[in-house]
Amino acid sequence: MSAAAPATDATPRATQGTAWWLRRSTGTALCAIAALYTLAPLIWLLFGVTKTLPELYSSNGFSPSAGFHVFGNIADLFRQDDGVFARWILNTAVYAVGGAAVATLLSVAAGYAFDKFDFKGREKWYAVVIAGVLVPHTAIVVPLYLMAAQVRMTDTLWSVLIPVMVNPFGVYLARAYSSGAVPGELLEAARIDGAGELRTFFTVGLRLMGPGALTIFLFQFIAIWNNFFLPLVMLTDNDLFTIGQGLFTWNSAVGQNPDYTRLVVVGSAVATIPLILLFIPLQRRWRAGLAEGGIR
Amino acid sequence: MFTRTVAALVGLAASLLLASCGLSDDANGNQPTTITYWSWVSGSREMVDRFNATHDDIRVNFELIPSGTSGGYSKMFNAVRAGRAPDIVTVEYPELPGFVTQNVVQPITRYGVEELAGRYPEWTWRQVALGGEVYALPKDIAPQVLFYRADLFEEYGLEPPATWEEYRAEAERLHEEHPDVSMTTFPTADAGLLAGLAWQAGADWFDTSSGQWRVDTTDEATRRVADYWDSLLADGLVTAGPTFAEQHITDLEAGRSLTLIAAPWTAANLSRFVPDLAGTWGVAPLPAWDLAASGNYGGSTMALPVGSPHPEEAMEFARWVSTSPDAIAAAAPVSTAFPANADLADDWRTAVEEANPYTHGMNLAAVAAAAAPTIPPSWEWGPDMTDGFSRLNDETTLDIGLPGGLATAFRDWQDATVDQLRRRGYDVTG
């Protein structure tokens, strides 16, 4: 608005009307800085993929390589240590897709139940779930390890998968979403038509909660994809590693083999690809789901 | 539509879960015994592959773990405590006494390893034989040597210095004639290298001969090392900075950093960091103080963790790693770590020269073999060197470059170490 006014005489008044930090140009500048801050590491990573190991150390991080080594680098990445990187991608996908799918189903079911059913101590139980949101994930990893060790489950796929199958924050989102998206009348109608509660949930409730479920799924998917501490503590079998844990292990061995530096850079770039691929098609729906959950 | 997506995802997840049950399947046949080996040392995987190819009765399953000080050692500690120890692990010399006192590794004397004692340098055997028991088989050692740019030394009319005095004199001349070139980049955070230098000078940072732990990093030998480098740094004769980081690599490439206090394993690292400098390096003995001596700067052992499920088979594998020319040949393409076993020195020279052209013309094998037995045998390590090295790195990062910085760092480190050990209940004399 101040931009539209004649600069000479209107300036003092416009300045009085809106503080400088509220003006649009300031906002744009702040957003640009934030965008730069967020994107700079990614740009560095993209340039890094094109480089050889000596170039990673001796050339400017934001300039491309003298040659083009992307394909060679990626081939080396998938060849290193008998091609274990491909295995790590597969593992991470299994943990993320499996864990997020189960977590989503459980969250949606629980949120729906909290919203639609009136049972004794409902709000107390709900408070317990919400308290779960407040406990940091890292705080429960070591107790989980000790419990897993007691049942001889450490260093198995399940030791990483089972703990990520529950997500209290997802229950919270699902409850909020259910109360906005699932009209009680519709459920009444389904019941009158003779559907049992389970059938009502799966045919009516779950369908209406689709966008909310997607939000929860993506949240949990990203959380598991980036989860580092849990697998680090639980797993030692290289064939069960996640990408993050595998790259960490390589990175710690650069003193022994400096070439791991290059592979870690390339591996980090490759690891972001599945997330980007997942987000581009789904971001619109995700935003919708977030907004609807948030209004309520 | 969304339900279909979700249903499809759930279905996909379910099938992945089912498929993954097959992934962790432990197809444990009944013929060969499978043992698990934890290591991060370069060349281990290649050695394991060779062992498996040449042995039918034992199959080694190699697990790459984070390097010891980056979490590998705590992983071992936790695994032993949780009763899930692997069969055999890599432990570096500095960590071994700590693992012995904490009951993480067990004695291996009963597997008849003492007959091998004569094959290793005296100091090496004393690093693994602690309190009357042998606790590990030495795999590789790292006698300190001096890597120098032979091409530039010739161009500038320098000779590989035999003593530290000559090293300083040449650095002075270099500084005068070529002010933009530095004799070396002195590492600001490399506790292992500093320990090696003090070791060479005849220091004994830790000593248990009195029955108590004694910590001494302010003795005459260490002070001599500290004062020497402090004065070189103060006079601008050497650059200070993190080694094998951006600035250092750039300086190496540009010929602005002429020497490296290093060990045989450094050759493999250089071949990756600065491949273009192939053929420009020479290797000379580490400059001496009074008598020809060297320090040790790395190396690793094969140790048997407490609770190792197959100790016999694990020891057979460890013995093979420590004594077989085949193991040396397998690791040569990726690693230039020098074998602890002196009988393997010739095999090592042949294998490395054949597999790694970068080392051609360096004279690395002869210099390393001559340096290995000159390392003083009395050096001992403290009960927690993971913590100790990381604190020494912190001290030197703060102090190197300040007047008397290295001397201050050693003094502060000694105080902190004594304090730390006392708090943990060790009997320590200052």
Explain this structure to me?
Chain A has 296 residues and is an all-alpha fold. Chain A has two domains: 7-43, no CATH class; 78-295, Orthogonal Bundle (MetI-like fold), CATH 1.10.3720. Helix content of chain A is 75%, strand content 0%. Chain A contains 14 helices and no strands. In chain A, helix 5 packs across helix 8 (168-181), helix 11 (210-225) runs antiparallel to helix 14 and helix 13 (243-252) runs antiparallel to helix 14. Chain A is globular. The two termini of chain A are 33 Å apart. Residues 1-11 of chain A have low confidence and may be disordered. Chain B is of the alpha/beta class and 430 residues long. Chain B has two domains: 33-142 and 299-359, Periplasmic binding protein-like II (D-Maltodextrin-Binding Protein, domain 2, 3-Layer(aba) Sandwich); 146-297 and 384-429, Periplasmic binding protein-like II (D-Maltodextrin-Binding Protein, domain 2), CATH 3.40.190.10. In chain B, strands 2-1-3-14-6-15 form a six-stranded mixed beta sheet, with helices on both faces. In chain B, helix 8 packs across helix 9 (220-234). The longest helix of chain B is centred in the N-terminal third of the chain and has 22 residues, at 2-23. Chain B is globular and about 70 Å long. Chain B starts with a helix and ends with a strand. Classes of the chains: A mainly alpha (296), B alpha/beta (430). The interface between A and B is large, with 45 and 51 residues.
